[in-house]
Give the backbone structure.
Amino acid sequence: MSGPDVPTLMPMNIRFFLIAFAAAGLLASCSRGAVKVEDTAVKMAADLRDVSRLSLVEMSVNKVGSISDSGATGFASLLNMLKVGDRVGVYSYHTYLEAFIDLSAIESDDVEVDEARRLVKVRLPQIEVRISGRDATVTEEHYRVTGMRSSISPVERARLKELMNSAVRSELRQNDAYGHMLLDTARSKAVGYISALLASMGYSSEITFR
């Protein structure tokens, strides 16, 4: 029997992936507006609500952890000293954060149309962030068990995955830099999408957030 594993974690590594969305249906729907300005604003708001959740940006989160006998304490450390060989496994953890807007929360008064100036003002809901629905993956990067050491068990790997999952959530809560990068990129994408959509309909735009 080997002593208890001592998982160790390394700082997160992050990458951004931008997610495009299909605006063709929204464009066609918005272009079939009524003549009255107020009707146009109401219809635009309704068409934006129909989009529902607009996914803007994904942030890829990576972390590295290990399982080994080194670092054990107490009686387990004495047992490890008597054993011959090494026991170490290194694993990479990968998951995603998603930034999105719930456009179903748009109200009719969040859209104003000035036909004389061909200007549309849109007030968007706040950007929201969540862990993507994809299951986090753990990949074995290095594995070495020699001598009298026992194999690393599925239970130990599952425990390490939970530990890394908790560590990622904790680090994201404590480090505002990650959140600011994600939100700033998402806001820029949202403004770009809505502005381009309205420009294709012949309107300039002013996009703000609640």
Summary: Strands lie at 8-9, 13-18, 53-68, 87-102, 111-114, 119-124, 128-131, 137-145, 204-209. The first helix runs from residue 24 to 31. The CA atoms of residues 87 and 145 lie 4 Å apart. The chain has one domain: 8-209.
